[in-house]
Write a structure and sequence with these properties.
With 94 residues, this protein is mainly alpha-helical. The relative contact order is 0.07.
Length: 94
Amino acid sequence: MTARTKKAPPPIVPPQPPQTEKEKAASLELREIMRSMADRLQQRNLDAAVALAKQAARRRGPLVDHFAELGRRFGSDIDQHEKPNLRVVKGEGA
């Protein structure tokens, strides 16, 4: 767009008629279904995170690989600036 181009005004949306009781009930039901789906998805993601943490505690899995790669790539940067305040966390298999 050039400086001379004007933005189009927002479209005029006429007011919606009030919802019927049936429409209100359907809307509430849809919201409840969506909330339930979001809750299930969040729980699935949390379960996956716990599984990853358990694998990492046994020094296995993608998190260990990921952090080892981060250490390889950025470890020298940390050494140059300051000594990191790290501690060893003993896992199940350690």
